TrEMBL record:
SUPFAM superfamilies: Glyoxalase/Bleomycin resistance protein/Dihydroxybiphenyl dioxygenase. It comes from the Bacteria. The lineage of its organism: Bacteria, Pseudomonadati, Pseudomonadota, Alphaproteobacteria, Hyphomicrobiales. GO terms for molecular function: dioxygenase activity. It holds the Pfam family Glyoxalase. Keywords: Dioxygenase, Oxidoreductase. This is Putative glyoxalase/dioxygenase protein. Residues 3-120 form the VOC domain. It comes from Rhizobium mesoamericanum STM3625.
Length: 122
């Protein structure tokens, strides 16, 4: 069976976005080209940053219609990460709040992609 292993975000400037994700993920890219930069993620996934003007075929819509979620285990882990990312002055789209699935918050990357932090499913 085929399993997805690459998440691609369309970005205005891959180098700018790579700086953001380099700091956020605490790791260096595994591939760098003028229009595409990739980061290896845990669990066999790769995060790709592709220059929007070079995407073929061009996307037919814009806007936030998806999120990348970081599920962080441990008591108070979500609130601890919220405090850290707030101190880094990352743009907060949703402050730390309790939802039906537990504590969560959302920050935005330089292109407005939504990054949600929450607890793993139990």
């Amino acid at each position: 069976m085929n399993s997805p292993n690459l998440i691609i975000l369309y970005v205005k400037d891959p180098a700018e976005s790579a700086g953001f994700y380099r700091s956020l993920l605490g790791r260096e890219p595994v591939a760098e080209a003028p229009n595409f930069i990739a980061f290896a993620l845990d669990g066999g996934f790769t995060l790709g940053l592709w220059r929007l003007s070079k995407v073929t075929p061009q996307p037919s819509a814009t806007g936030s219609r998806a999120e990348i979620a970081f599920m962080v285990p441990g008591e108070n882990a979500v609130s601890t990460l919220y405090d850290d990312w707030r101190k880094r002055q990352l743009p907060i789209a949703q402050d730390l709040t309790e939802m039906d699935f537990g504590p969560t918050f959302v920050v935005l990357d330089p292109d407005g992609h939504r990054l949600r932090v929450c607890e793993p499913d139990k």
